[in-house]
Amino acid sequence: MKEDFLHYLWKFKKFDFLNALTAQGETLQILQVGNHNETKSGPDFFNAKLRIGNQVWAGNVEIHINSSDWYAHHHEEDPAYDNVILHVVWKHDVEVFRENNTPIATLQLSDFASAEALKNYLELVEKANYNWINCEKDLASVSGFIVKNWLERLYIERLQEKTKVIQAALTSSRNDWEAVCFQLLAKNFGLNVNGKAFFVMASALPFSVVRKMRDQEELEALFFGMLQMFPKEFDDVYVLRLKESFEYQKKKYKLEPVEQQVAYFRLRPPNFPSIRLAQLAFIYATSQNIFLKLMQLKTRKEIHALFKVEVSDYWKNHFNFGKESKSSAKVLSPGFIDLLIINTIVPLKFHFASLKSNSATEECFSLLNELPKEKNATIEKFNELRPKMATSALESQALLHLKPNYCDQNKCLHCAIGLSLLKK
């Protein structure tokens, strides 16, 4: 038995509330169950209204498995619990008292709980013995309307998580949105393997320096130099020029290279850090006010057009320093640009609008619904359990949030899908 289930029973009145009696033998009438407090601080339900015996009470409701948990959690020492008017428990094993030494009314839910709700709960959570998620055998039976709305809510949660990084970067950059955009683009150009190194580099580099430069070679020198990527031994004229350029910039702008090491291992050549940084240099050499432009673009097609990237002549026939390869254009693939939209552009749009008291939800939904679903084992498994559960990037992003934050933590009672199955 978990407290979450008792919250569910109380919130949705899944017990014989018409005939409920307190443990002290008084009749209990629920006028308002109260507002569910889903934070960790304070009573579980605020502003409840109850009739206990002949008296109407207004205040808070606290829920525990056992009455004695009140003392185990030291609520008797916390003034936040002074206004509790009802203690809802599964087992009433000890009396709890107010400051004036009168007992707090207690409802022992085990005497009144719905047998059907208890059975459904035990099947879903307590006795779940499935290979992947608790509801896997019933997932396909849940209403499409419930699933659609829940995935949209989950995607908003995921966006809100991503905007924490944006807000931290804004604070560090004194609200320079162009600088933050550069940092996030750099991070996502590095993908999972080099994302952290690229982000550290972009954060350590004053964006005022990047803003001044319009020469692609100078920007390459700046990025490679900040990450200390130049080979120690070389006879390549291009590398020599870049190194000399960086040494000049380093002295002029008092730059400090970062200690983050880039990796090539298990990366396909088009994703080598050298190529991704050369592409990033092209973008900032050929475009100004990138953040402002991105905020104005509304469709996938428009954003893809902005990221039509080329590399300098050197990188057309190189994947890393000093080793010549077959010439290729090394453009950004549509899939890579879609990842930039998912991980950088949409979160920026969402947070920028929210700080201006505007809503970008519909625009974000529209943009993400244009993108195909991501391909990974989690998404494929959900689609196996419920065909076409994810067909767009919005839905796949929502599922990537659902699995670790709800399914893996057995938070079925906080999930619209889990609640719908319990109510059946």
Characterize the structure shown.
With 424 residues, this protein is an alpha/beta fold. The model has no long low-confidence stretch (mean pLDDT 95). A hairpin with a 2-residue loop joins strand 3 (45-52) and strand 4 (55-66). Helix 14 (334-355) runs antiparallel to helix 15 (361-370). Helix content is 50%, strand content 10%. Among the domains are: 3-113, no CATH class; 173-332, no CATH class. The strands form two sheets. Strands 1, 2, 3, 4, 5 and 6 form a six-stranded mixed sheet that branches. A two-stranded antiparallel ribbon has the order 7-8. InterPro entries: DUF2851. It comes from Mesonia profundi. It holds the Pfam family DUF2851. This is DUF2851 family protein.
Mean pLDDT across all amino acids? 95
Q: What share of the residues does DSSP label as strand, in percent? A: 5-15%
The helix/strand class is alpha/beta
The profile of the biggest β sheet is: 6 strands, mixed
Instruction: Determine the number of helices (DSSP H or I, runs of at least 4 residues).
Output: 18
Strand segment count: 8
N-C termini distance: 19 Å
How would you summarize what this structure contains?
With 424 residues, the chain is of the alpha/beta class.
What's the arrangement of secondary structure elements?
Layout: H1 3-11, E1 28-32, E2 35-36, E3 45-52, E4 55-66, H2 69-72, E5 84-91, E6 106-108, H3 115-126, H4 144-172, H5 177-189, H6 191-204, H7 207-212, H8 216-226, H9 237-253, H10 273-286, H11 290-296, H12 300-306, H13 313-316, E7 318-320, E8 323-324, H14 334-355, H15 361-370, H16 377-385, H17 393-407, H18 416-423
Parallel strand pairs: 4-5, 5-6
Antiparallel strand pairs: 1-3, 2-3, 3-4, 7-8
